[in-house]
Amino acid sequence: MFEGKVKADVLKEVVDVVSTLVDEAKFNVGKDSITVKAVDPAHVAMVDLTLDRGAFEAYKADEGELGVDMDKMKEILRLAKGGETISFSHDEDKNRLVVTVGNTTRRMALVDTAGMSDPKVPSLNLPAKLVVRTDELRQAIRASESISDHIALKASPDGFEIVSEGDTDNVSHMVPKDLLEELQSKEAVRSLFPLDYFSNMVKAISSAPTVTLYLGSDYPVKIEFKIAGGKGEVKFLLAPRIESEG
Amino acid sequence: MFEGKVKADVLKEVVDVVSTLVDEAKFNVGKDSITVKAVDPAHVAMVDLTLDRGAFEAYKADEGELGVDMDKMKEILRLAKGGETISFSHDEDKNRLVVTVGNTTRRMALVDTAGMSDPKVPSLNLPAKLVVRTDELRQAIRASESISDHIALKASPDGFEIVSEGDTDNVSHMVPKDLLEELQSKEAVRSLFPLDYFSNMVKAISSAPTVTLYLGSDYPVKIEFKIAGGKGEVKFLLAPRIESEG
Amino acid sequence: MFEGKVKADVLKEVVDVVSTLVDEAKFNVGKDSITVKAVDPAHVAMVDLTLDRGAFEAYKADEGELGVDMDKMKEILRLAKGGETISFSHDEDKNRLVVTVGNTTRRMALVDTAGMSDPKVPSLNLPAKLVVRTDELRQAIRASESISDHIALKASPDGFEIVSEGDTDNVSHMVPKDLLEELQSKEAVRSLFPLDYFSNMVKAISSAPTVTLYLGSDYPVKIEFKIAGGKGEVKFLLAPRIESEG
Quick one: fold of A2-35+50-109? Predict the structure, then answer.
């Protein structure tokens, strides 16, 4: 059983995050929260999202699973203004999700979750942690787009740097220590990542003013941020591209 | 003889409506009003538009016909701001329309109206009549676009409903009786229509806050609304798609 | 040696003007100003731009040349808001331009200027001179776009007229004498120009409210306007298209 009401703004945050990696996802509905864990088809990135029941205007659920097509959710979002409430209820007999926005009701077929396993989130011991303004990431991505398909994320006791190296030009976006909300980096670390994945993850951050990054050397990056005004959390994990020594 | 001045906003309403169905149209100019009657090339829909002389800033005309290319009128509209006045005069010797916007004058060849007959508007006895907010139609169309190429318009003593049925999903947009400005429907009626035509007609409504619909079962729908702040009127007629019984 | 700081707005004016005609340009850096002279690949048009050192927030330079890729400058501009300051310094050892916007630094390879000669600006004795509002040019271009690939610029003691002749339609945009800030035209002159070049030149005028035009009969047009709030100047020269006598 699942019945819930949620502001369009909150649903949009969830849909933006999940659709960054997958077209369809299994939403694990629980008594106190909904969680989504998914790996992209190329197995390069993972998302682990939690939305507390407090993020909803109304919430009533037993344990269950809903297989959701993200494009259909985007169609629903186009029907609602940001502050408008969207109502959901699970029609278990027909395995459909009944979604209501204002005077409009859509009865939506759910996706079969049989083939959707819950990916295991690996436990990583990443030596550097930092909290950076989301705007800094956006600016660095914009500057790197014309340079290379990859960016290096670097942390050191001095600050956080995003570097992009091209054939003729290179770009460095340096956020010094005093512009970071938090910095733990005893030694210098550096990992290289595909720009498109990193860019899409950062574009999925709609409201969080800051992001927590966990970094190592030639290790995945963990990107954590809040959604739903703090009543939900997202953890992205992105695999590094190992740099070949020339 | 025809000379007139009209606000760009008013001309835009006329052009939006007529160009929904045809690329070229015969404008019947009279002493007290201009009328346009046209059928789309596929003979699925008809428009019957009247613009009173009171909708013009200045108006002087004998009986006559002007064959107008709608794309050229859209080019004229791009030269004028909404509240700006556009002047027209018919150069009968060269059969050209002389159009002035600010310091710009365009001498525009008219289209030969010889092959353009005035379609007869059929007299229909449609059992249901209702007045609905234009926004409700827009929202219902938006919700139906991803579901099917057709929508059913339904009226009953309870209200007005727009329904779209797809292979896996369906959408219902229900406007209950108390949200309608007027409802006359002794029995339930239902007709199916091509979504693209209905959508384009509704998109052509730029200013009217409400629309009057006349409906039957497997009958055309008549869509009436005001233009030019009430100094003009549009009647669209759209043929139904007869549903095959499975 | 070259080091400078400039507002993004000012840099944008320069880039818009120069990139109208060429993808790469030689910037001649001097003690008191930067100049760019360039001819488009088809040898139809020329630009002669001067930006005074007063247009910069800071400026320090010896005589020198910088070969600049205009697309890279547009990428830099996308990183800065209008009022934001962009810093440049020339790394002479590596022949790179080091560009800083906020926390972002781009090290940009310069283009080899060996093959870039300074075009000679021809001295023309054009009989008509007029000062017209840029908006009048924009409106005339908009009106001509659907008519023909060419426009005629005409001046006479009565005023300035832009004319476009098509197969079925024609457009005249007439700016009478009293709407011109200045008019010197003892006799009537008229020259025909390619619309796309003239349109692109006028689109490159972002801030100047008026433009000075110098015109003759079947002669080039000279288009002069200010940039950087008067601390820079642009002269465009556009070759006429000689009209064949039918």
Answer: DNA Polymerase III; Chain A, domain 2 (3.10.150)
